[in-house]
Amino acid sequence: MMPAAARRLVGVFLTAAALLASGIPATALNVQPVIIDLLSSGRRTSTVLTLQNTFSTTVPVELTAHRLEVVDGELRETDVEAEDLLVFPAQATVEPGQSQAFRIQWVGDPEIQASQHFFVTVAQLPVVLPENQNAIQVLYNFKVLVSVGAPGAVSALAVQSVAIETGEDGVGRPVLTVSNSGNTYGYVGKNRLTLVQRAPNGDEILRESWEPEQLQQLMGLGLVPSGATRRLPINIRLPQPNGAVTVELTPVQDR
């Protein structure tokens, strides 16, 4: 399972109360991978998504795909069903202890001019219970992020600004505004990030760098679609909730 922060982009949407009431372990269903990168043409137009059922009962599931868009710097799932992303089979029944493979395939324009993004939702369906049986059915829903880019296209990420947001705990944390002027998507979390904070009097009070693996633990992958601008909080506790913060992104090879 992924960390709680990343579960918001790929997530199992269950409340703690429902889990406690049901007694079902959070690992009863496992979906891999939860982030998929495809190309619009060539060999990487499709991949396989695998669902493992570790329940002691049969699990029926349904898969749907919806487009994503950037609204106010955040990724939002739309009501528009994807016609150019094929999910097969769309429904399946997975026996206890077994796995089911689903094919995710781009069937749209092979020469897209901008990256395309989707959530594929893997939804556990309710089962019909006997009339004399009362039970709470806890249904798992996973969201898998699928991104499609053109072969040879490149991203061009740039940090436009860095703000300091102060939480209810009084601690300041940085929020990046990152644009992408390239013709495919990019991941902020695949870069090395160096952050410098200066106090209001100009003194440097923090300078620290994070490698991609470390950065992804603090902010996830930080997807920025082509031609879009994202607002990306980073879970870093700043020594002061004021002053100025600057951030430098450095590409890391072979990531």
UniProtKB/TrEMBL annotation:
Gene3D superfamilies: Immunoglobulins
Signal peptide: none
InterPro entries xref list: Ig-like_fold (IPR013783), PapD-like_sf (IPR008962), Periplasmic_pilus_chap (IPR050643)
The organism's place on the tree of life at top rank: Bacteria
Protein name as it appears in the record: P pilus assembly chaperone PapD
Organism: Brevundimonas mediterranea
